[in-house]
Amino acid sequence: MTPPPLRSAPPPRSACLIKPKPVPHLINLRAVDICNMKPSVVYFDLEATGLLKSADIIQIAALENDNCFNVYVSTKKQLTQSAMEVTGMKLNDDKKLVKNGVVLETVEPCAAYVMFNEWLRKIGDKILLVGHGSKSFDIPLLHANLTRYADSKTRNALFSRIVGFADTFLIAKQNRSRFGLSSLSLINICRSLAIPTNSTSLHDALTDARLVREIIKKMNMSSRIHSYTISWTRVFREGIDP
Predict the structure, then answer these.
(1) Phi, psi (5° rounding) for residue 106?
(2) Where does the Exonuclease domain start and stop, copy by copy (predicted)?
């Protein structure tokens, strides 16, 4: 999805599961530096309890060739009304995450990031994550949740393993004349490229990650995706707080 940039919000009264940790130093890499690393390309998407940077990630999905990662993450935070509407998820009376009336199997946040790091480790030492709207939403959201919930070993491993990002929203924006669209939402781009979609499964992280992969294929950009790389530091330097 293409949500607005994450905004700062007063900290919630309830304490996080793990107290916030100092943000580690993020290495400033240029696109050419990342390209020379030849990182493995992974398509990903996140779903969350809301749009603020204080929101909790509740689904992490990623694809690399035939490899698939899809985990639902437990939370104690109520989803915003808009998040419930677009994801079909909510907390029930027992504080269990439910999707379309079905209780989901979830893991604790700290464990989810250990699992994600281990999955990425098996793919390669250097990873380029590709998503839609990732510069304004997924990257700062991932950074904030890693800082809040991940243990230091896992957090630092992910910060060093994920060397950069690419954003199909920004790629489409640079090629706007090709699409002739006023809105570069994921669904609009897919329709413009004749990519089949199922509206009932949109805003499921795994479905959206697959659509991002199809967009890159349809645009014949698989071999050029590295030239559109965004580094961690570029995101935060341009005004999005970690």
Answers:
(1) -120, 165
(2) 40-225
> Angle CA(176)–CA(177)–CA(183) in degrees, nearest 5?
40
Q: Taking Cα atoms as reference points, which of 151, 140, 157 lies closest to residue 19?
A: 151
CA distances from 46 to 73, 131, 132, 149, 206 (A): 11, 9, 10, 16, 9
Instruction: Decide if 169 contacts 143 (C-beta within 8 A).
Output: no
Most distant CA pair in the chain, distance: 51
Strands 67-73, 106-107: pairing is parallel
pTM for this structure? 0.82
Pairwise CA distance, residues 32 & 38, whole Å: 10
CA-closest candidate to residue 58, choices 102, 104, 14: 104
- Quick: pLDDT tens for 64-103: 998 999 999 999 999 999 999 999 999 999 999 999 889 9
How far from each other are the two terminal CA atoms of the chain, in whole angstroms?
20
Answer yes or no: are the C-beta atoms of 165 and 34 closer than 8 Å. Answer: no
Token pair listed for 55: 């929101």
Run of H or E residues at 102: strand 102-103
Cα separation, 171 vs 188, whole angstroms: 14
Task: Return the H-helix or E-strand segment holding 26.
Answer: none
